[in-house]
Write a structure and sequence with these properties.
The protein is mainly alpha-helical. The chain contains 14 helices and 5 strands. Strand 1 (8-15), helix 2 and strand 2 form a beta-alpha-beta unit. It binds tryptophan (TRP). The site of tryptophan has 12 residues, from strand 1 and helix 8.
Length: 341
């Protein structure tokens, strides 16, 4: 076996519908970049832009988000000589594999997908005659496309949020079914990796930071806007001088996710000593701004140079297809779609 094939293959996708925020960085981007630096790992990170079409039919938003997310990963230091960084839509083998997998995947399995079931439940709650109202085949088959993403590269590990565990289980199920039907060890069984040590950040209103709650702090907003947003973070009505509880405080949570251990202990002491909310917010802003200044500059420069980002992604697609195309050939053969000679 070659050295490359002995590496642990770690793969994850980012749906390109939003603008990256502090929560994405702490919860996904930062650990992924760290994992990619492990010499025993080959990482595959991609922009899940085919998945984006399921949720977002605003072409401008999809296009913008793809560029923003690519620029963000590069600005934060992803080394694309090591990690294979690509756009899902640049790999035609993925939709092809999606079809093959669709043909071995039980419809009943998809009926049980959380995202689909939630949409049906909403329709039922709203008293709609048709429980499938507004549900596209894209949404229904979403886990099959995700299985193709994962199985295409025989990924061992898939770092995801809790909400995605079911999809990895489905990918395992589909992989097993294909292997069994076509009598071969075509696909590796992927494993979901959910890191409990990775913080889920809260947003401006104290709920989980999420685009759907409209409570995010985008990673690379201008300094002034960053200050404004930090000032908006919800706090309680304790006065300066009264001791405050860091454990239940969004401000402190964000602070500790970005600051050094020493700075975090110092802040904890300030809470006990009754730091006022205005001061705590100033401290948070200063620290965040300090940490984000350099990557923000790189991000802005990258956003001005889409040609460079395009070239990086093309190179990534070439590397990904160097694996996907021959594998897809093998799978075609397996299913009876090989060349005659
Ligand atoms: N569905 C994932 C999400 O919304 C994104 C995704 C698409 C993905 N394909 C993937 C994640 C493959 C891991 C592996 O977060």
């Amino acid at each position: 076996m070659s050295a490359a094939s002995q590496k642990t293959r770690v793969l994850t996708g980012i749906t390109t519908t939003g603008t990256p925020h502090l929560g994405n960085y702490v919860g996904a981007i930062k650990p992924a970049i760290a994992a990619s630096q492990d010499p025993t790992v080959q990482s595959y990170y991609f922009l899940a832009d085919l998945h984006a079409l399921i949720k977002c039919q605003d072409p401008k938003r999809v296009q913008e988000s793809r560029l923003e997310i690519a620029a963000t990963w590069l600005a934060l230091g992803l080394d694309t000589d090591t990690a294979i960084f690509y756009r899902q839509s640049d790999i035609p083998e993925i939709p092809e594999l999606t079809w093959m997998l669709s043909c071995v995947c039980a419809k009943g399995l998809m009926n049980r997908a959380h995202a689909y079931k939630a949409s049906v439940a909403e329709n039922e709650a709203a008293g709609n005659q048709d429980p499938d109202k507004g549900i596209t085949m894209g949404l229904f088959g979403y886990p099959v496309l995700m299985a193709a993403d994962i199985l295409m590269f025989n990924s061992h590990k898939v770092p995801v949020g809790r909400d995605q565990i079911q999809h990895i289980e489905m990918a395992r199920d589909i992989a097993g079914r294909f292997n069994h039907l076509y009598k071969g060890d075509y696909f590796t069984q992927p494993e979901a990796v959910v890191d409990d040590n990775v913080a889920t950040l809260n947003g401006l209103d104290g709920r989980k930071m999420s685009k759907s709650y409209n409570n995010t702090i985008p990673l690379f907003v201008a300094e002034k806007k960053l200050l404004k947003l930090v000032r908006k973070i919800k706090t309680n009505s304790l006065e300066p001088g009264e001791p405050k509880d860091p454990a239940t405080c969004t401000l402190f949570q964000i602070y500790s996710a970005f600051a050094s251990r020493e700075a975090t202990s110092a802040m904890r002491a300030e809470y006990q000593a009754g730091i006022g909310w205005g001061d705590a917010k100033s401290r948070l802003f200063e620290m965040l701004n300090e940490q984000l200044r350099e990557p923000r500059e790189r991000y802005l420069a990258l956003m001005e140079d889409p040609g460079h980002i395009e070239a990086v992604l093309q190179k990534g697609a070439e590397r990904a297809r160097a694996e996907a195309a021959p594998f897809m050939d093998r799978l075609r053969h397996a299913a009876g779609l090989g060349r005659f000679v």
